[in-house]
Amino acid sequence: MKNTTTAKLLTTVISLLCFQFLTAQDEFRSGDVLITGGKLLTVTNGDMEETDLLILDGKIAEIGTNLTAPEGVPTLDATGKYIMPGIVDAHSHIGLDAVNEATNPMTPEVAIADVINPFDIALYHALAGGVTVSHAMHGSANVIGGQNQTIKHRYGAMLPSDLIMEDARRTVKFALGENPIRVHGEGYNTLPNTRMGVETVIRQGFDNALAYREAWDEFYRKKEEGIVAVPPRYKKRKEVLLEILDGEILIHCHSYRSDEIYMLMNVCRDYGIEEIIFQHVNEGFKVAPELAEFGAMASVFSDWWAYKFEVYYSTAYNTTILAQNNVITSVNSDSRALIRHLYLEAAKAQRYGQLSDNQTLELITINPAIQLGIDDRVGSLETGKDGDVAIFSGHPLSIYSIPEYTFVDGIMYFNRTEDPDDMRLVTDPEEEFESFMRLKSGRGDHDCLH
Amino acid sequence: MLLPGLLVSQITGDEIPKAAKDLLLSNIQIKTQPGDELIRADVHIVDGVIAEIGENIEVKRGAKVIEGDELILYAAFISALSHLGQPEEEDDARRSAWRGAPGATPLEQSGLTPHFFASTDYDPGESDLKKYHQQGFGLVHSVPRGFVMPGKGSLYLLTDPADGKVNTLLKKETGLFAQFRNMRRVYPATPLATMSVWREVITDVRYQKDYYDKWSENPSGLSRPAATELDKALFPVVSREQPVFFHTGETRQALRAMNLADELDFEVILANAGRLNDDFLAGLHQGIKILPNLDFPDNPEKEKEEEKEDSEQDDESEEDPEDEKDELPAGIDKEEYEHLKERRKLAWEEQIMLSKKAHDKGALGGFSTLSVDSGDILSAVRLLHKKGMSEDELLEALTTLPAALFGMEGTIGKVKEGYQAHLVLFDGPFTGEDAKPAFLIVDGHLHDLRENDD
Description:
The structure holds two protein chains of two kinds. By secondary structure, chain A is α/β, with parallel strands linked by helices. Chain A has helices at 2-17, 19-24, 121-127, 178-188, 195-224, 236-245, 258-270, 288-294, 318-324, 342-353, 357-362, 366-371, 434-440; strands at residues 33-41, 47-56, 59-64, 75-77, 82-85, 87-92, 131-136, 144-147, 149-152, 171-175, 250-255, 276-280, 297-300, 329-331, 389-392, 403-408, 411-415. In chain A, the strands form three sheets. In chain A, strands 1, 2, 3, 4, 5, 15, 16 and 17 form an eight-stranded mixed beta sheet that branches. Chain A has a six-stranded mixed beta sheet with strand order 8-10-11-12-13-14. In chain A, helix 9 crosses helix 10. In chain B, strands 1, 2, 3, 4, 5, 6, 16, 17 and 18 form a nine-stranded mixed beta sheet that branches. In chain B, strands 9-12-13-14-15 form a five-stranded mixed beta sheet. Chain B has a four-stranded mixed beta sheet with strand order 7-8-10-11. In chain B, 48% of the residues are buried. At the A-B interface, helix 1 and helix 13 of A face helix 4, helix 6, helix 7 and helix 10 of B.
């Protein structure tokens, strides 16, 4: 009898925790779906009128007309709607329990993958804006920050590991300029106190890591000769720096001014690092040809600046200038608020710089996917790619359009017609409902880190 | 009068000794171990050991005898984790001791002190000791306070060391206590760096241990090892001889601890666990033990009932239909309010049910009393009983499971011949609402708990 009661209670708990999804979108939770009759914005293969999109087992299986749903596969009628690839945000901090390990100018050993918070309601809000993938980044307190993690917005998952995008390229945060100088130089009276110091921290870090490698090489050489030697002390920080030098981890660098951007490209050249993505890059327009020549990429705000001294020299034409100079460019959010309407952030670039519709969509789809090393998986509507799809009422670059459905891996995670106020996954047994009221009123926390 | 049926012959009042070399519990109901039926017999304790359990045991002249036909004898309860006897933190002082850059902090100053011991400063104090006694506890696993790796825990007998002049330390090193708790402005300051520090330190210690072992075997021609006391304290962790009691209040912390244990190959015990979700429990590896805390939030439903009772008592005649409406928080309608209350209740249930779920998975290792007020332990245990845990399951969590956790299942945690005499006598089944312990016997030392009932 007691066991029955317990089992009943457990079932109630489980069903209540998942009730929104199970009741509202149960039909579309298998990873299989046929979306019919919509206008496809494929990004890499032009636009396609009244076209069907079949997703099977979480992957785009077929794109065409008059497709038939295999047995048991549900159909979603998208006639008159616009279907685009799930939006990719190359710079975000949502879904995290910690952002900055701001106690050392160099912390590449720390990993954002360790602090993912799958319960963050911002993940659901991002889905409501059509964003299916984000680059969860370490903050910009340190010259060399932590390793970032690309996540899929599988909101509803109760385990952090379920959000991790498998096989995404490993990346690490770097930060130049005022932030690390303020935190470490001014805050702790240590390196870096100036932009020169920032460069020194990076060069010293790499040099020390190379010396560390030599010490271990020596240890293993002796070992092979049968000599028992005291092992060098194992240093996680230097291990990761070596992986950066070896090109296994991609640098995403917080930066604003053209001089420091140019400086880091020179440092990379000196150490044989061939790939780099600059984040923010407000003065990128001054060094766009140099960025293109290096092969560096840029991830920018569309029109956000003047929040501190180093960000005054900015322009809303930055995105366009970079893109027209053949720098692979994306528009990012870096914010719990902007991530809800990243499609409009991209549209602003078009408003100022007259990029084409497709060029503009690239800013939030295939280009950030390239920057994260996941363009073989997402960023366009192509067979074989992940079933990450955002469906809008009209063209996503129109101010009048509204995201209506969002799919990740062919599973519907957002449905505007079934969107209860309370989408939190966990609640506090002692809560007084303030957190819910804040959410309901739209006054949730915004931690704008930039 | 509070203990009807209890007779204490031959020893009374002030004459009750603190220590008894030879003690007979006569004609007493015995719960020998979880799962067993109550039996009625005599229990003879000699020099701190259960010498005999049987009928009509004859003892030497001068032996102390307790006769209590209504009393029920259990093995004394064991707290699987607590800070009992550990000095209050001086974290601010320790922080201020470091004047350099926060990223260049020596490990000890960052809260990595695996070479510290709970036994160094252990002093339970009379008041706390008494509180534990009154909850039926005879043994406690005490772990040091601190930050990332506070140090090694010790298992203690809960008897007054000053009075009895006995050694209360039963096991000096039970394992390493660890937590996701950081000092401010010192590396590691977040779980981000805490995870990394674990990876670095444990990997490094493996290298150092490897060399240290070779040097210990034959130091001829070898440089002195670089291993420090801190490193050496982690040797038994990397060799899996000692587990890590990882303070994991909720699912994400528990996952972090599990990930570290998997990656770095050490034994982890999820200590002082609060809310662990079902997805986590479903994926829990075989053999991982959980020590749920008993620090339960107030039952939101109970509060409601009490409020209702109060208002009925206060004002029965003038019931205003608008009252309920007035109680709704601004901006929330009745339907939403009911929904939120239901979710809050389920969140509460989720926390309460952890022990039962862990038990059913074979993952329960005992109860942590680290964060619960030591005077509220039995109330929490009784709440678990109400919520479906049987008396036997609870007794396991209080006796045999923690005994096994410390590798002492053959000597403590049962009322069995040859076992150490750590026993508690309740005046009824311990899960009963009004049951109280009347006597506690620790290492054969008798503590009369009845005086507080006067």
